[in-house]
């Protein structure tokens, strides 16, 4: 049925990643074929990632794939250090996500409203 409601005031703190496939991911895009035209999404807000460090088996370190109508708000990154085990450059992608980032590798410059 799509999504409704909210996910808020969530904190991820003091996490050590060892070869994580998707280290940091928020995805408001999901589709149930029976209800694919509803355009609904769970509201995501006030999510903090603090003191997260370690390795990723993918170059995609941080993915914030939020809905154009609902978006993700007040997403905070502080003291993040995620490196790729492939030796490649870590990638960050944001769609319709707002918040702030400080002391982060990779830097989450794609957040709006910083």
UniProtKB/TrEMBL annotation:
Pfam families: Glyco_hydro_28 (PF00295)
Keyword field contains 4Fe-4S: no
Main location: secreted
Keywords: Cell wall, Disulfide bond, Glycoprotein, Glycosidase, Hydrolase, Secreted
Sample GO molecular function, one term: polygalacturonase activity
UniProt xrefs under InterPro entries: Glyco_hydro_28 (IPR000743), Pectin_lyas_fold (IPR012334), Pectin_lyase_fold/virulence (IPR011050)
Family: Belongs to the glycosyl hydrolase 28 family.
Protein name: Polygalacturonase
Organism: Lotus japonicus (Lotus corniculatus var. japonicus)
Lineage: Eukaryota, Viridiplantae, Streptophyta, Embryophyta, Tracheophyta
């Amino acid at each position: 049925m799509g999504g409704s409601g909210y996910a808020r005031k969530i904190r991820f703190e003091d996490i050590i990643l060892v070869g994580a496939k998707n280290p940091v991911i928020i995805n408001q895009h999901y589709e149930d074929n029976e209800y694919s035209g509803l355009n609904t999404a769970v509201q995501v807000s006030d999510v903090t990632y603090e003191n997260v460090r370690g390795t990723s088996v993918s170059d995609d370190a941080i993915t914030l794939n939020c809905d154009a109508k609902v978006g993700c708000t007040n997403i905070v990154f502080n003291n993040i250090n995620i490196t790729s085990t492939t030796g490649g450059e870590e990638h960050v992608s944001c769609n319709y996500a707002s918040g702030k980032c400080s002391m982060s590798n990779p830097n989450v410059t794609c957040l709006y409203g910083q």
